Amino acid sequence: MACTVEFIEFLCETLRPLGEVRSRKMMGDYVIYVNEKCVITACDNIAYAKKLPCIADLMAEAETGYPYQGAKEAYILDFTDTRKVLRVIGILWDNLPFPKSKKR
Fold it and tell me: Alpha carbon of 57 to those of 1, 54, 87: distances in Å?
């Protein structure tokens, strides 16, 4: 089951306080960018964040899962706690690289 448009719009709207937010459809699911860094993979109406040491303490109680077959284990974001989500995504943003430019 792919993500619904409403779910993606909800994620993007929730993340707007962090800056420019956009989504990109990829093979039926989505990735969410904040200020041009990919911070969330959304699959089956579940938001996943990379499992990085910089957010390990904040996400210690979080569920984990695999966004798609062959993916690395990721944290599942609980959007009922918006303040925590914004904090986690802000920290992730500070620690993730910008995507590499595709050479044509």
Answer: 31, 8, 12
Dihedral angle at the C-alpha atoms of 6, 10, 21, 95, nearest 10 degrees? -120
Residue 89: which of 8, 2, 19 has the closest Cα?
A: 19
Taking only the tens place, the pLDDT of each residue in 5-56 is 999 999 999 999 999 999 999 877 899 999 999 999 999 999 999 999 999 9
Question: Could you tell me where the DSSP H helices lie in 1-104?
Answer: 5-15, 82-95
Question: What residue ranges in the chain does DSSP mark as E strands?
Answer: 21-26, 29-34, 37-43, 46-50, 64-65, 74-76
C-beta neighbour count of 23 within 10 angstroms: 18
Q: Phi/psi at 35 (nearest 5 deg)? A: 45, 45
Cβ-Cβ contacts under 8 Å for 62 (sequence gap 6 or more): 75, 76, 77, 78
DSSP 66: -
